[in-house]
Design brief:
By secondary structure, the protein is an alpha/beta fold. It has two domains: about 280 residues, NAD(P)-binding Rossmann-like Domain (Rossmann fold); about 200 residues, N-(1-d-carboxylethyl)-l-norvaline Dehydrogenase, domain 2. It is built from 21 helices and eleven strands. Strands 5-2-1-6-7 form a five-stranded parallel beta sheet, sandwiched between helices. The protein has a three-stranded mixed beta sheet with strand order 4-3-9. The protein is globular. The mean pLDDT is about 95. Bound molecules: D-mannonic acid. D-mannonic acid binds next to helix 10 and helix 14.
């Protein structure tokens, strides 16, 4: 616990910071809002906001951020008394660097006042609306990318379009207002780990607009840019321990610091008709086509992450670094990347895949991060398609084997049973958890029943994969091993096949 006597981090106390803590080196009061960000969680604050902070410091004062929470008010409530300031703790085996970030100049809580958020997005000074609302926040079908027109939030947004709940609902209503006012649209910048994220969000937003008003759908299709992005930085959820450690170094309380690894990468398609900050000068890569970067990252980093999360959790490892410290886990992940994923990738211009993969293993091993396997295991139904199933489709099309990719999918199935290998309940967090648990528990711990029942979930596996006998056989075989021997033994004995 942090001491209740300690002063809070905010604009007044900033001057009390010890000299070794980096802080905004610009006139915070002069910064004007140019970006509205939906989903002001830890990832945004450790990633995009840091790039923007760099541009504010360089004198591009029109690009400060108004951050909105679409669900829980907790982050906004923590940062409001801090004038939007928070600490970023960058951690590695070599130690920790702290930096106070000033880019977030205004905070909004959408469910408390949806109108305030729409008005902020409709302000012509805002030229970018960026998003990190997690995969499930787009209300799309994970297998096809199409808007789920039966999603409860989408139904609610169609019934009360002026007081939306969903991210697509806010985008559509704010864009409608801008069109009505004769203002030019903002650029929509998706920063979530979705495949072709700009294109996917464009499809969802256009469809929702069309359902409201066909001409609005056409206007959005013609006028609004949705550049795709690849975002990368490992940002574990903040813990009480992190809060206490940061407060001890600041000599001030920060109710919601964020922790991250040193590595950071942002590859952005350069389509910003309404203008943008010079992100390239803050380290972002502005490119014509993000697709090869995105496939590389989603399949190598996130695919390995999800595989490590399910197998690692089942094997009793609390964090990614604990799991990867077992040489058999590191060997499995290296094999997954080299043998099964790399052949499905196009190498991005100038990238060195060998170096990239070696650096991923080092990043996973970062002992200072404490990135919980349970955290990464969340929302598997939304993550598997782009992380593992895309590579599986490419491998099957090439007639190539998939033992390690199938083991990742089987580990997710074993996890969805909802009890760990010691018989203790698993806190399964997934928007589809009720249905998945029902299906899995009815099938029971039997690979011949469990695998086919879960493969029938079309939102995850699509029409094609469920019917592919090679896929079904590989998953069932891996699942048999997991149920009979447990995850640790399966990994230590070597991947099946
Ligand atoms: C992780 C990602 O939680 C997860 O599912 O795989 O958040 C991962 O840490 C980031 O994508 C890294 O850029």
């Amino acid at each position: 616990m942090t001491g209740s006597q300690t002063m809070r981090l905010n604009l007044h106390s900033l001057s009390h910071l010890p000299a070794d803590i980096a802080r905004p080196a610009y006139d915070i009061g002069a910064a004007r809002i140019g970006v509205v960000h939906l989903g002001i969680g830890a990832f945004h604050r450790a990633h995009q906001a840091v790039y923007i902070d760099g541009r504010l410091a360089a004198g591009e004062s029109d690009w400060a951020i108004c951050g909105a929470s679409l669900r829980s008010p907790d982050t906004s409530d923590a940062l409001e008394p801090q004038d939007g300031l928070y600490t970023l703790a960058i951690r590695s085996g070599q130690g920790e660097r702290l930096r106070v970030v000033g880019a977030v100049r205004r905070l909004l809580v959408a469910p408390r006042d949806p109108e305030a958020l729409i008005a902020a997005m409709a302000d012509p000074a805002v030229r970018i609306v960026s998003l990190t609302v997690t995969e499930k926040g787009y209300c799309h079908d994970p297998a096809t990318g199409a808007l789920r027109e039966d999603h409860p939030d989408i139904l609610a947004d169609l019934a009360s379009p002026q007081a939306p709940r969903s991210a697509p609902g806010f985008l559509v209503e704010a864009l409608r207002r801008r069109r009505e006012a004769g203002a030019s649209p903002f650029t929509v910048l998706c920063c979530d780990n979705l495949p072709a994220n700009g294109r996917t969000v464009a499809g969802v937003v256009r469809r929702l607009a069309e359902l409201r008003e066909p001409s609005l759908g056409r206007w959005i299709a013609d006028e609004v840019a949705f550049p795709s992005t690849m975002v990368d930085r490992i940002v574990p959820a903040t813990t009480e321990e992190d809060r206490a450690a940061v407060a001890a170094r600041l000599g001030l309380d920060d109710a919601w610091p964020v922790t991250a690894e040193p590595f950071t990468q942002w590859v952005v398609e350069d389509r910003f008709p309404a203008g943008r900050p010079r992100l390239e000068e803050a380290g972002a890569e502005m490119v014509a086509d993000v697709a090869p970067y995105e496939l590389m990252k989603l399949r190598l980093l996130n695919g390995s992450h999800s595989t490590l999360a399910y197998l690692g959790y089942l094997a009793g490892y609390d964090t990614v670094s604990d799991a990867i410290a077992n040489p058999a886990f590191a060997h499995l992940i290296r094999g997954l990347m080299d043998e099964e994923v790399t052949p499905t990738l196009a190498v991005p211009p100038g990238a060195d895949l060998e170096r990239y993969k070696a650096s991923l293993l080092e990043r996973f091993a970062n002992p200072a991060l404490k990135h919980r396997t349970w955290q990464i295991a969340m929302d598997g139904s939304q993550k598997l398609p782009q992380r593992l199933l895309g590579a599986i489709r490419d491998r099957l099309a090439a007639g190539a084997p998939i033992p390690r990719l199938a083991l990742g999918v089987a580990a997710w199935m074993r996890y969805v049973l909802g009890v760990d290998e010691q018989g203790k309940p698993i806190d399964l967090r997934d928007p589809m958890s009720a249905r998945l648990l029902d299906l899995a528990q009815a099938a029971g711990p039997n690979a011949e029943r469990l695998a086919p029942v879960l493969l029938e979930v079309r939102e995850i596996f699509g029409e094609d994969l469920a019917r592919d006998p090679r896929f079904a056989a590989a998953v069932a075989e891996a699942l048999r091993g997991l149920l009979a021997k447990g995850a640790r033994r399966v990994v230590e004995e070597g991947a099946p096949g």
